Amino acid sequence: MLELKNYRTQVHNDWCPGCGDFGIVNAIQMTLLEMQLEPHRIGLFSGIGCSGKTPHFVNAYGFHTLHGRVLPIATGAKLANPSLTVIAVGGDGDGLGIGAGHFVNTGRRNLDFTYVLHDNGVYGLTKGQASPTLPKGLKTKSMPAPSIVEGINPIAMAIASGYTFVARSYALDVRHLKATLRAAIEHRGSAFVDVLQTCPTYNDINTKEWYAGDDLPSKAPRLYKLEETGYDGRVADPTVRDETNSKKGNALLKSFEWGEKIPIGVFFKMEVATFEDQLANRMPALKEKPFVEHDIYSRDISPLLDELA
Amino acid sequence: MLELKNYRTQVHNDWCPGCGDFGIVNAIQMTLLEMQLEPHRIGLFSGIGCSGKTPHFVNAYGFHTLHGRVLPIATGAKLANPSLTVIAVGGDGDGLGIGAGHFVNTGRRNLDFTYVLHDNGVYGLTKGQASPTLPKGLKTKSMPAPSIVEGINPIAMAIASGYTFVARSYALDVRHLKATLRAAIEHRGSAFVDVLQTCPTYNDINTKEWYAGDDLPSKAPRLYKLEETGYDGRVADPTVRDETNSKKGNALLKSFEWGEKIPIGVFFKMEVATFEDQLANRMPALKEKPFVEHDIYSRDISPLLDELA
Amino acid sequence: MVNSFTWMIGGPQGSGINSVAENFAKACIRGGLHVFANIEYHSNIKGEHSYYRLRVDSREPRSHVDWVDLLVALDRETMFGDLNKVHPTHRGHRHEISPGGGIIYDSGLKLQPESFGRDDIKLFPVPYMDLLIDALKEFGKDKELSKYQVMVNTIALGASIGLVDYDFDLATEAIKEGFTGRKAALGDLNISAARHGYDYAKKMFGQNAFPIKLRKQPLGAKRMMIRGVQAIAIGKLKAGCGFQTYYPITPATDESEYLESHQPDYNMIVVQAEDEISAINMATGAAHAGLRSSTSTSGPGFSLMAEGLGWAGITEAPGPVIILWQRAGPATGLPTRTEQADLRFALHAAHGEFPRIIIAPGDVAECFYDTFDAFNYAERYQVPVIILADKFLASTYKDIPLFNTDGMKVDRGDLVQEADLAKSPDYKRYQFTDLGISPRARPGLKGGVFWTTGDEHDEYGHITEAADLRVRMMKKRMNKVELASQVIPNSKKAILHGPTSAPITLVGWGSTKGAILDGMEDLRADGIETNFLQIRYVNPFPTDFVQKVLSSSRRTVAVENNYSGQMAGLIRERTGIAIDSKVVKFDGRPFSQNEVYEGVKDVVRDGAKEVTLSHA
Amino acid sequence: MVNSFTWMIGGPQGSGINSVAENFAKACIRGGLHVFANIEYHSNIKGEHSYYRLRVDSREPRSHVDWVDLLVALDRETMFGDLNKVHPTHRGHRHEISPGGGIIYDSGLKLQPESFGRDDIKLFPVPYMDLLIDALKEFGKDKELSKYQVMVNTIALGASIGLVDYDFDLATEAIKEGFTGRKAALGDLNISAARHGYDYAKKMFGQNAFPIKLRKQPLGAKRMMIRGVQAIAIGKLKAGCGFQTYYPITPATDESEYLESHQPDYNMIVVQAEDEISAINMATGAAHAGLRSSTSTSGPGFSLMAEGLGWAGITEAPGPVIILWQRAGPATGLPTRTEQADLRFALHAAHGEFPRIIIAPGDVAECFYDTFDAFNYAERYQVPVIILADKFLASTYKDIPLFNTDGMKVDRGDLVQEADLAKSPDYKRYQFTDLGISPRARPGLKGGVFWTTGDEHDEYGHITEAADLRVRMMKKRMNKVELASQVIPNSKKAILHGPTSAPITLVGWGSTKGAILDGMEDLRADGIETNFLQIRYVNPFPTDFVQKVLSSSRRTVAVENNYSGQMAGLIRERTGIAIDSKVVKFDGRPFSQNEVYEGVKDVVRDGAKEVTLSHA
Ligand SMILES: Cc1ncc(C[n+]2csc(CCOP(=O)(O)OP(=O)(O)O)c2C)c(N)n1
Ligand SMILES: Cc1ncc(C[n+]2csc(CCOP(=O)(O)OP(=O)(O)O)c2C)c(N)n1
Ligand code: SF4
Ligand code: SF4
Ligand SMILES: [Mg+2]
Ligand SMILES: [Mg+2]
Predict the structure, then answer these.
(1) Is residue A205 included in any domain, yes or no?
(2) A18 CA closest ligand 3 atom index
(3) Residue A148: inside a domain
(4) How confident is the model over A134-184, as pLDDT tens digits?
(5) Nearest-CA neighbor of A118 among A88, A75, A152, A148?
(6) Which domain does A265 fall in, by range?
(7) Strand order through the sheet with D530-535
(8) Which end of chain C, N or C, is less surrounded by CB atoms within 10 Å?
């Protein structure tokens, strides 16, 4: 029986006090614990940013990659060894700014992995510039003037890109986040989780209090759970195009809700063949064991030479 | 009165016979003619690919840039000189493969320009590999096996990215294409036109005949015009969030139609302040004349030095 | 003359000159002859002028020459150029024909002999269309003429074989092999077309119309006809590479396509990435995960890989092996033409300092062996390895003996297993060791959990900003090139070809090898004795050997397919020795045998410091 | 001792050491003293140890030293390090205090004097919290203690001024300036805090507790306190740059933020791009459109810019000017630390060969003047220009005279106007001219329609694959570096500081200039006479001058902030001269005055070929 300590490292954590990232790393550890996944079977990948430091705090194979490049590196490792549980994490600048091209094109592959976006509306580690998710017209603490570009809607972007599991959660609701992460990891295919993350140092708009609705006349929390409204984003039969499209359409419409009410939970889910499945269909030997375990010492190239002779 | 010949160059055109790109370049020239835009007031930008050669055939300032980088280069030029009519063209690989990050992040800016995607489902100039728009499961002529990744839906991607004018047309319907391009150019803001383009050399699936519906029992053309169905993608009042969202939602749902029926026309349109407008609000001098025409010979930096003294 | 022959076929892109030329080449090899075949084409899909050169000889040619004995023109432009265009680019090949040589062309063009402007060549007008119709008629296909029109190239092939009086059956065989299974009928059609061309030539021009003959020779050991892209791909397969990423780009794509087409046989994962940034990073991810991995690109793609290369370097990834198929730059440049201008860039790509190994194979065979080694070194030293090849090597066919794989051993370096890990519980991926290399685990192994980061790190792979650790880690990493240098045999790093005592030393690297070796023979014939220092390892650089060779040479001449003589610069940086003269070419075309001769001759005659060649 | 003083303040990130140190520095400058101030910090937002060094002198210091006369510790770690962590990284600064120096620290820590392990330093425990509460009470804010807690730093500042017996009013003034408008009240609060610290020190430690005093000097001409990022930003504004793109990255961002904050005053467009690929390409687009443009980044971003750089090169774009703020690599490396390891990369970034100009300013003033020149050369020669700066230059404050802008003239090169175009109708953007530069139009001009492409092109800018045009265009482009070399004064390209006849020549480039100049004085005091060859233009490289200087030197020593001595390599490549010894530092920290002294001393004493320094 694995315990929480098995998922922790001794590395000094230097996030700002009160940073939402603590909630995310805790939820990741608790999810792994709950699933009793062995640390050596997990690959945790990150980009560059405050969020990028996450793998150092988790006892699992950890890859702290380059700014914006977490998805390609995670993809390569997963394809080499599909028996790993691969989780990628990264900032909103990392994933939707510099990494947007990979975000879009990784979604299309439907690799069996989970991508967790630390969505804090700012470039944390470079001191609070607007990130791509910051809505137009807003100005956080260290910006000289309000943003004049439209914010990206990560949920809509993920659905348009082809992720087959698309959800949103909240860094400070560790229970919900844990449940969401578990569903994402268990999903066979590309799972995307947009985690609303507070950055008390630079994002003075989307604060804990703001999410709690303290500024609203009603004082009611902004976040509400899709599951509790009867919303069902699951595609029962992906071969039925109409169902797929209408579920996608619903999810997209839902994703536009952002203001006094903000939905969290699973927006969309559909199970279809993964990229690895399809590769293995082409190369049945990959079904038997992951490629890294194949013998590469004795390949016979003579048929190739004969072909050219 | 400008004539068609004023928009043409003497450069030998080396596209394959029957290539849909001819339709696009013709439509561009005819649109410019119709609008009587003076060649020296136009900047035509392209990426790399068969489509990338377009500017050389058009008599206008022409920038044949790098693979995937047409949008940043066009953006820089437009900001330097907003008085130019800026049109960017490029392949689907150029725009949604290697260039996807710029596609997404340019949409957000709402620069006043037009982006024309030569959507042929293949990487033409590199000999027919699958482009990002090729639907999963298909195998064009020079592919060794069918694609195992989901195709990108450019319309959905454009809407999710924030383009404020999103339309589709067909390279071989020069009339419709011309009308669409004109609407796109006249739109104040980022206009995206997904042009279905036949590539007779490599794309043996989405052929002229296929678009004409020759393979269908009905023999009816696949393409139909949104305008003729009463569909209206125009947001009357962008300040009304609900209208904006519902129009976006409709457009997204429409964009999923792809099969026996394929809609062309304007999916979405909304007029809001452009990036240049907003910059000029911050720097009123930019309203008077484009930056390139300002005097830069005599800037006085002494206030800055005094600030530091 | 017998068995010393250069043939060229030219025509618009899409007219199938490749397959025809390759069939001719195959027929020659099957007859015991040797070939060297290379193509020039535009960045275009259909219509622009392309041409394929085939050099046939009784001894193995290692390069091409700039003249043509027999030109096959599929169109007018091949002979006369495109001077009719508003922006003309060339004047055709008729002036390249050697005195006494000839042209096969379409008699349907109705050209006046005077229009060729040469009275020293033979004209062989052939009624392409009529012959094709005749050939089709035999199969009842003459109604579908437009569908088969491309087959005029095969008629011209037949006519060529007729003129040089070669064994037609060998051509038949070569053609047949190209059309197997459902395409067999097409093969017969083509054979018939060739036959019509052959018969026509024999009949109309007579037995001695053309002065050069090709004659079969006794067959020796089995030989392959192979291009650089294939040699490198096969090297990867032999090395146990399991993961290849690519983004389409000329001239690299062919390598990935070759691998993809053999994917199921070797369980090789080939992924078309969304761009080259993704391509290198995927490959590095796979390498860290324990799979031998590789990516293949050309200059523009490599430019995008710089950052990823640095990450592989600082994280001590066991690879990837990166094949840099150079082409003429900068930027898009001349995308389908050759150049050797990325040497310095390969050496310095990415910010900061980290170890890398760079190998520049000189010919098709070296492509194979160097690629194999590359994977061993990548894993042994946990460094990225770059192979510097180019468009010329990529697309040039040669016949060579089958690769000798005896003694080739996959060496995965210090790759730890679960059993080892169980023994020593505190595993550190970046441990400082006496040998200077840290034992390497892979994700999935129990007990091997590690971290890796592009930040400076401690032995566990956790971020550190400690100055002392930084210094030790830098030294550890940078020292690996030194370690590799001690183990890689000097004989692999640089080779001195020719007499040690020659007064003139030619210096080159990569694909110029063949032209230099052949050019040296012409120089010798002219009384100019040279040797040739081939530098095969750019890093670790064979400083001592180069120093020794060059300091005992009376005159040194760099022969490089770039503008500035990048290798000459590197040599001076490493040895202090200034190369006396540079013979350079940067028009996007490869060196020919005669250009090497001419360039060096200029240097010898005038003491020229710099000779720029351009023959096209 | 008077007016020769090094002060350091250390504390967790977020404790506001910057503003305190800068206020102290300002107070010194206002009193006619001179400062050199630099900061070391982690890649972290809050909590990690950072420290700010302030060197004050009656003569202008150009570098820092590795000892501290008075250390202000805002926390325990500043004194004792983080040895309590599982992965410790440093042992604090107490051992850096000069004998007879002292520490100001929080008496609330209740440290035993023995715990410092030094009996040669003075301890100045100050009750930070009590004094802060007292100060707050005066404003009735003592209930909001937690909100104002960061102000203990100002208490420590006050105490420091008390100990060195400096003019408190100057500190008051400096603090006040930082809090204008709505924040004025906060200024008063801070002044009160400083006053409490000052009074406490005076009262408790007495007049002569600390051996070094600071005394006002007569004020000369007005001086600024300025950092490299500001100098370069102001250089851009002066040069008429109208367009700056950036993607956030340490240490480059500060420059863009400075420009952004002055945007409305100068109509400077500042765009935060989605990545560095976009940043460089936007800037090149703007340059082609006729606007002076620039982008600013650090190593990781520059790695992504390689391809775009090549496009600017082949299209002969009149810019952009690229500021490469080097930091310690590779990959993410030590993101907030300094290094000079991108010299070779800047020189060779991007595939293929094309011209570029590279300037490496040596100090804050040169940052300004070189940036101004960069735009002139970019437009005149239609090339990208790279300025090689680094984190050390970026963040280091110095006091210098106001920039002298007399005679600085914007030179836009051969920029044609509509009137010119009307005269010559067949405009060719890439015309071959006698001068070697093509007159440049910009989109929007009637009659100037042109094309531009990253493919090889003809004079109109249309694609060509013609060999002869290729050769001419390559020569035209590459020759521009030669043209620039003839026009850029040699006196700008390299400077020999110190006596021409000195037997030892130190060679350096970029930000090491100050430490080298100061270190030379120590060497001279020790009887070692040196001079210093500062290479300011990396390209065009001042080959002849360097050759002349080095060949007449008895011993040459490269001083570089990188592992491999990149400039030494470049010098050997260009001149054949091997630099005798290298003094290098690659721990992410800049050279200090004493390190230059120590390194060169080692070389002189032992004839060491290579000395690696690391003082941190
Ligand atoms: C190529 C490159 N460009 C820029 C940077 C500098 N950089 C470091 S972190 C960061 C942004 C962080 O923002 P985000 O991704 O949102 O992560 P957060 O810190 O908010 O978790 C940037 C731009 C870099 N490391 N690499
Ligand atoms: C960085 C880089 N990678 C790869 C290439 C090679 N390349 C040239 S065109 C092209 C793709 C063309 O496809 P698309 O963009 O769809 O344009 P099309 O030819 O279909 O019009 C590629 C990959 C390149 N020029 N630059
Ligand atoms: S800056 Fe923001 S995101 Fe980064 S650690 Fe601090 S609170 Fe968290
Ligand atoms: S390959 Fe396709 S897209 Fe390219 S020119 Fe030919 S038909 Fe057009
Ligand atoms: Mg963020
Ligand atoms: Mg395409």
Answers:
(1) yes
(2) 7
(3) yes
(4) 999 999 999 999 999 999 999 999 999 999 999 999 999 999 999 999 999
(5) A88
(6) 4-272
(7) D494-497, D530-535, D504-509, D555-560, D581-585, D610-613
(8) N
